[in-house]
């Protein structure tokens, strides 16, 4: 069986893993600092594993926005991002150059979506949305089991939605103010609550406003993407488990009876936490590595046939 390595490059921390699809054998975690320091640490970790075990391919599941189109001249480069020092950084290129093996890159949320689709809460679903609500808010979309790309890739965290009546919080997004990331991601919640979101009481009235905003996002996804499953992960809903059921209970009212299948009971089974927990991103990076290896093998076969 091929040995694969994965890099989950997050805005706060980086996770480097060794394993196979559906299995993590080794793991190293460290803070995400500068591009050079962070990628060098990831490369060193993989090189250390290669000294004892061959690593056949690497997958990178990265925060973004990042250029994922293989045809683009800046494929594998970070675009404009709030993470200081990372705008314009080369992400996949240094890894491929240092390790000399196939490398694939996609967003961290597309990677997590692939893992949950293959091994977790999205098994058996052709269409799936994976949301993560933590330091930022991101969304990965799978259609027919494949990540949605297009012009760039989904940037669900930066949509603007209807605000709750009387909610005048300005939002914290450096680009859009009160987009949904600027309203309910970790920094926004810290500003709204006056303390770290994990330490806030479940009955704090601010959660009603947050549930409204999250419900608006969920209703929008149901109407636009029509997913069979929405998986909601990240530290915010993980530390405040009451939030997701509170938001889901509001979605039927927002839909206004338009979709008869979207009852409260049906939505409670359709909008769920991840089964893989914090392993979704690293396991998704391993899925991307397997895809990179498959692509290389297919290219070699085509070349040999020619």
From TrEMBL:
Q: Which domain of life is it from?
A: Bacteria
Query: Which GO molecular-function terms appear in the entry?
Result: fructokinase activity; metal ion binding
Q: Which reaction does it catalyse?
A: D-fructose + ATP = D-fructose 6-phosphate + ADP + H(+)
Q: Which Gene3D superfamilies match?
A: 3.30.420.40
List UniProt keywords, sorted A-Z: Magnesium, Metal-binding, Zinc
What is this protein's name? fructokinase
Q: What is its EC number?
A: 2.7.1.4
Stored InterPro entries = ATPase_NBD, Carb_Metab_Reg_Kinase/Isom, ROK, ROK_cs
Recorded hits in PROSITE patterns, A to Z, give: ROK (PS01125)
Which cofactors does this protein require?
Mg(2+)
| Source organism | Novosphingobium silvae
Q: According to the UniProt record, what class of enzyme is this?
A: transferase
